[in-house]
User: Fold this.
Amino acid sequence: MKAAFGRVWKLEQNGGSIIGGTINALKERSRNSSAVRDPRLPKTKGQTVGSFRKGLATLPNTISSRFSSQAYNDSCLPYDAMPLRAPFCFRIALSFYHIPDCFCKLGSKIKLSWKLSSISKSEDGWYTLTYETPEGLVSVLSRSIVMAVPSYVASCLLRPLSAAAADALSQFYYPPVAAVTISYPKEAIRDECLIDGEFKGFGQLHPRSQEVETLGTIYSSSLFPNRAPAERILLLNYIGGATNPGILSKTEGKLVEAVDRDLRKMLINPCAQEPLVLGVRVWPQAIPQFLVGHLDLLHDAKTGLKNDGLEGLFLGGNYVSGVALGRCVEGAYEVSDDVARFLAQYLYK
Assistant:
């Protein structure tokens, strides 16, 4: 409960129950209501779902535009060009992910196609990170490291340094999930699924008792404007998960067939025309599952790092903070505070 629904758990701890905690949280918010809302944000009634007008790519594109292509970062230089040792090296193994082209503008702030192959630590407390890059092997020195990679990647990299931490990190489970984005004509929606003649709502989740493969469907064109032409609807569907790892053996066509078949059982008219397929993306290891014992495994991993003398090496990412985007951002701030406290001991040395 604490790992998967941290905020709900805190409400219960702070108020004796979820309702009591909610009342206390509202009282606390009213006492600290001096924060000024950014006037650029749209006005909403209560809590709502939001996105960028041009999609989520707006976020990385905007971050990219704020950095100069000539950005300079000493912590990313190889030995023969490093005038000073870097106090902190924030490294994500970018080669494990698809990185938008917009990040190329970040200059030396972010390194593309740098694959971290090994980490070692010297007796004087400096870490050496060795990367495979398009220009060959590059070594970087750093006082501190944040490993914001999936736990199974961190496990492989840390095994030579801490077997205990690596063993704990290898036990987090990431089931496979596929995202299937398809579009239908508006007239394909069943009449009983319309509200006042319109297709409205957030989406739907499918329990296994319904005997369908699709995990859930998001009504993208109903949630946000300009996601589809006026005469069509756009649906984002997820299929796979812990109970259906067999999706890895299916072709993209078979995944679309499965989703379309499920939708025709509850949302789409059985005689509707075939959907327009806009995208199919399969993640063999998708979102970490917060199973019973999750926090114990995380504690074991952190304890293993500490017992093996790996101070200054911090774990981050969605298996640490939570899978929601907001929690990942909050978790990043929390880790940065930990790094700042650690590096403070070196400020005047």
Notes: Confidence is low (pLDDT under 50) at residues 68-105. The first helix runs from residue 6 to 15.
